[in-house]
Amino acid sequence: MKNLALALAALPLCALAFPALAQAADTAALEAVATKALAADDIAFAFTEGLTTEVGPRQAGTEAEARGRAWATAWLTANGFANVADEPFEMDTWVPGDIARARVTGPFAQDLVVLPLGDSAATPKGGVEAEVVFFPSFDDLRAAPDGSLKGKIAYISHQMRPAQDGSHYGFAGPVRWVGPGIAASKGAVAAVIKSVGTDYHRNPHTGGTDFPEGVKPIPAAALSLPDAENLERMFARAGGRPVTLRLELNPRQLGKTISGNVVGEIVGRNPDLPPVLLACHLDSWWNSPGVADNAAGCGIIAAAAKNVAEAGQPLRTIRVLFAGAEETGLWGSAAYSKAHIHETIAVGLESDFGADRIWRFQSNFRDTNPDLHARLARSVARFGVANSSLVAGGGADLNIVRDQKGALINLQQDGTRYFDLHHTPDDTLDKIDIAQLRQNVAVWTTVVGILANEERSILTGGFEPSGPAIMAE
Q1: Strand, coil or helix: 88
Q2: Is the pLDDT of residue 14 over 50?
Q3: Are 206 and 169 a contacting pair, CB within 8 Å?
Q4: Is a pLDDT exceeding 70 seen at residue 354?
Q5: Is the distance from CB of 206 to CB of 172 less than 8 angstroms?
Q6: Is the pLDDT of residue 389 over 60?
Q7: Rounded to whole angstroms, how far apart are CA atoms 110 and 63?
Q8: pTM
Q9: pLDDT greater than 80 at residue 372
Q10: For domain 2-93+255-452, which CATH number applies: 3.30.70.1170, 3.40.50.300, 3.40.630.10, 2.120.10.90?
Q11: Range 283-295 burial, b when 16+ CB lie within 10 A, else e
């Protein structure tokens, strides 16, 4: 933060504007900038390194997240973005506390490594001890009779595996997302889950959980994968004897605090045309600097916007949205849509799946605007990105585009190792592969450059009239 402030103060005013904005971009200039990014981009890494070094973990609604927003605001200003703002909103804020302990008390006494899940309740001081009921899958938990877990601790497992498209997260995710809530509704006094992840370090994967309306939250924690599988072996060896566990957590709810969305723009030649929206999220969980999730994503979109500006002033405005409080419930995405729903967005893209190479292109306008879809797909083939007939649903922070039923693009990153790092202390800068990060920037530069210079309506393929009366594409 201090370094950015000093750099900003030292810049002459003329350095805060992009020198190429005086003239329009052309295809050759955009291709050249993207080629340069593939070989030598350092903007995305510098952003990622700066944010995670100078701020570190950025839990939503806390002082650390506020420092992250201040850092990002200063960075955007220093790097020539216009209309930079931190748009505040209120949120319900949960913090993890400083106690997270689990110990098998019988029949094979030993400590296990755990972290609380977001919105977990606290245990009584000294912990809660009870017999553990083992559910090999989420479906097994759902099938348990009502009241059958009264006075027990539920342990919920899964068989998540690495996948390039990250699809096993959808398969295993309910174990965390709603598993503890279902266990609570069946009478459990606490719940522990096998971390929703794919690594085999003793690093639990945290993340949010949700309790149904009318169900009192219970203590809920994630076991590291090695500890979870050790617990499962204990059940196999117990020979019918009960497995008992003592769990101690001290998270708490702070009530309403302030988070915010940081925005900035590359202003287009025709500001009456709906803008191109590039999204990421700025917050992380408390246990990690959040490099892959999602500092690198913000670095990628910022670099792409700067690169398009370097090629010449785009036709449309490019707006970057560094959303706040994504991890704890998409608060920033919802707040941004509520505040800006009257401002039509031409197309939305988000980078929030790490920084490994982009391998697949998807849109939701393949049928309504086949020419543009095909042109975009052709443009990124040189970077090893495949076309797809799957319909893009957009990233988590693009609520505004979904609410407007607008155009969406997915630039899908390789997720094979993403869930080794996701929501763990291992999500650190050394995991960034520079060559793959640069490929992301090159692909994003190419796609954003085409979109930002598209005259026709992106979703429908029809012509857009210009003027402030436009409300939808």
Answers
A1: strand
A2: no
A3: no
A4: yes
A5: no
A6: yes
A7: 36
A8: 0.92
A9: yes
A10: 3.40.630.10
A11: bbbbbbbbbbbbb
